[in-house]
Amino acid sequence: PICGIHSPEDLAVTPSGKWVLFGEIGRNAIGAMRTSDHSVSRIYHPATGSGERNSWGAQECAAPPGPDEFTPLGMDLTLLNSGEMRLLVVNMGRRSSIEFFEISESPEKVEAVWRGCVRFPSGINGNSVATIPTGGFVATTMGTLQAGEERIKDLERIVKGEPFGKVLEWTPGQGWRELAAGHISAPNGILVSADSRTVYFA
User: Fold this and answer.
1) Are 166 and 141 spatial neighbours (Cβ–Cβ below 8 Å)?
2) Residues 6+ away with beta carbon under 8 Å from 154
């Protein structure tokens, strides 16, 4: 076993293959594991972020999440044509959003700097995210699970395979639109094909 990791949710491997990035729900942080020796470090936490600016996200998202607003879920790492590495992270914390991070790596360390966010439409929490060539992304959502007895009813609908959730797309300048809804149940993981013509979700 690899020790020092708390409630990991999703994984992303850097292009060099030397680092595995992961979200830690229990610590509200992004961690990294070096593949050569399995050493683990924290590369982002809202309380210790620095050098942050909004250069990739929506204009209305002007500041990084606060310490009590960040809970990482799904993530997707992409090497951009500019040579920069962009990490998208589903934030299921008090700020329901997709957070953008710039990743830099060396043999000794990997770093993450916040570069913007896109807030989900009201009443929606995200599950997973994947980059698309427009500079935007696609994401899965189960909507918002309710509290108490209503939450139990929602979970029963998911177990029965009843329609519940959506697949959404966000593009700069155009915002959100639905790709699939009504006939899918609890979509979770999502991927985009190598030619960017097909979106797969489960």
Assistant:
1) yes
2) 145, 146, 164
Burial category of 124 from C-beta neighbours within 10 Å (exposed 0-12, middle 13-18, buried 19 and up): middle
Point out which residues pair with 22 in neighbouring strands: 11, 31
Return d(Cα 197, Cα 172) in angstroms, integer: 19
Beta strands in the chain (DSSP E): 8-13, 19-24, 29-34, 40-44, 72-79, 85-92, 96-105, 110-119, 125-131, 137-143, 166-171, 175-181, 190-192, 199-201
Distance between CA atoms of residues 79 and 98, nearest Å:
18
Cα–Cα distance measured from residue 184 to residue 88, given in angstroms and rounded to the nearest whole number: 24
Judge contact between 82 and 102, C-beta under 8 A. Answer: no
pLDDT digits (tens, 9 = 90+) for 29-74: 999 999 999 999 999 999 887 778 888 999 999 899 998 899 999 9
End-to-end CA distance of the chain: 28
Q: Per-residue confidence at 128, pLDDT binned at 50, 70, 90?
A: very high
CB 75 within 8 A of CB 88: yes
> CA geometry: angle at 6 spanning 33 and 146, to 5°?
125
